[in-house]
Specification:
The chain is α/β, with parallel strands linked by helices. It is built from 14 helices and 14 strands. Helix 2 packs parallel to helix 4, helix 6 runs parallel beside helix 8 and helix 12 packs parallel to helix 13. The longest helix has 25 residues. The N and C termini lie close together (7 Å).
Length: 471
């Protein structure tokens, strides 16, 4: 029998504003990075202006249909709903003197709708949707002035929503900036022209901003919990060769540096050698080290796959993965080449908890797949997504094992609980949801919502607090 999940465990789902809201210029919203990346945000095409083929401009029209969608989440029994605030809805250019009231009102209404059903909002302050003006005018987080703009934005939303939102995340997958500098760090300069010093200076600015805003949040909202969010990626050595094991350690640390700073309040000792050997020079301002001491209350992360590392020059990196890595011959992969490793989730939960002994929160996990809409025996349209049920079941069984191992886990939100536009490829055919949205990659479709088979499955998992899972 599956081990118990704790009482009060926060079951739910997750989305990002830029992938679902649409209404990209409505009610005073400014342009964000996502409005000019029609093919996906990871090293993809950046257009001078928004183009019609950019699926994110309409998304799934969540901006106008959120009441209908929240009602469906409530029907599943969600205790928590992770979403992000589109920075450019609040400050259209990012450096505006005053916020946009219409944008603030939208999130007031959205959070009220969640709370009406007893669903706690979990809000990401910056989720790959920096105002485009900050990228063009300042080259994004390379410019220290972004710390001030971000602080103003955070202060505005903390003050406005302090009685509605208890859980906050500062940056989405903050460690992805090295691999996706435009999408993650709003850096307009081409990736090939950036030095490692350029990237780590931008990272430093984000880490300082995260700590500053964590301090600010605790002052404005003493009862709120503010977390960091990292891309969780267990790294296995390809062989027991000591060289492979050491390379794995180095690769792990590249990721862990981000959570180390945000949880421990300082740069780790191993960073000195990393910076020295890669000729990385960071300019710190007086007071930065003191600011970094404002640490987060919990660590949240996304988990989709594990990777392997090898010193063998013939070992090739896998496809479709933002963080690279060598494929594991013992694992199967999704249609997009992401390797499926449920036990890797237990492994990373234990690794992070052993390291930090702070509460953890899984805020993204799921299977992107091509779903086929069919009619069931009652004539209702649905998707027979047993493959998704199997994927989530197997991962959640391992989550239960990790809890039994002693890991303190706050909750679990599946990624894309309703179909949305993929961040990596900007497709809608790569679906994650329990709810099918009738929209196609050519822009056609009615935008109608249909419950997939996994909808009732997840409803049962939440109702039984995980007891319905099958080992």
């Amino acid at each position: 029998m599956v081990k118990d999940f704790p009482e009060g465990f926060l079951w739910g789902g997750a989305v990002a504003a830029n992938q679902c809201e649409g209404a990209y210029l409505e009610d005073g919203k400014g342009l964000s990075l996502q409005d000019v990346t029609p093919k996906g945000g990871i090293g993809g095409l950046i257009t001078p202006e928004p183009t019609e083929d950019n699926m994110k401009l309409v998304g799934i029209d969540f901006y106008h249909r959120y009441k209908e969608d929240i009602k469906l989440f409530a029907e599943m029994g969600f205790k928590v709903f992770r979403t992000s605030i589109a920075w450019s809805r609040i400050f259209p250019n990012g450096d505006d003197a005053e916020p946009n009231e219409k944008g603030l009102e939208f999130y007031d209404n959205l959070f009220d709708e969640c709370l009406k059903y007893g669903i706690e909002p979990l809000v990401t302050i910056s989720h790959y949707e920096t105002p485009l003006n900050l990228a063009k005018k300042y080259d994004g987080w390379r410019d220290r002035r972004l710390i001030g703009f971000y602080e103003t934005y955070a202060r505005t939303i903390f003050t406005r929503y302090k009685d509605k939102v208890k859980y906050w995340l500062t940056f989405n997958e903050i460690n992805s900036i090295v691999h996706a500098p435009f999408m993650s760090g709003a850096i307009y300069t081409e990736k090939e022209k950036l030095s490692m010093s350029d990237l780590y200076q931008a990272i430093h600015h984000e880490l300082v901003a995260s700590a500053l805003v964590t301090k600010l949040g605790h002052e404005i909202m003493p009862d709120a919990k503010i977390g960091c969010m990292v891309l969780g990626m267990p790294v296995y050595p390809m062989s027991p060769k000591p060289e492979d094991v050491l390379k794995t350690l180095e690769r792990d640390r590249e990721n862990l540096l981000f959570s180390d700073v945000q949880v421990r309040g300082k740069y780790p000792s191993y960073a000195k050698r990393l910076f020295k050997e890669q000729n990385i020079q960071i300019k710190m301002e007086p007071g930065d080290e003191e600011i970094l001491k404002n640490t987060v209350d919990f660590i949240s992360f996304s988990y989709y796959m594990s990777i392997c590392e090898s010193t063998d020059p013939s070992a090739k990196a896998g496809q479709g993965n933002i963080m690279g890595g060598v494929p594991n011959p013992h694992l199967k992969a999704s249609e997009w080449g992401w390797q499926i490793d449920p036990k890797g989730l237990r492994y990373i939960l234990n690794t992070l908890y052993d390291r930090y002994e702070k509460p953890l929160f899984i805020v993204e996990n799921g299977l992107g797949a091509v779903d086929k809409l069919v009619e069931d025996e009652n004539g209702n349209k649905t998707v027979e997504d047993d493959y998704r049920i199997q994927y989530l079941n197997d991962h959640l069984v391992q989550v239960a094992e990790a809890i039994e191992d002693g890991v303190e886990l706050m909750g679990y939100t599946t990624w894309g609980c309703i179909d949305l536009v993929s961040a990596s490829t900007a497709e809608l055919k790569k679906r994650y949801g329990f709810i099918y949205v009738d929209r196609n990659d050519d822009g056609t479709g009615t935008l109608e919502r249909y419950k997939k088979k996994s909808f009732d499955w997840y409803k049962e998992v939440i109702a039984t607090n995980g007891k319905s899972l099958i080992e």
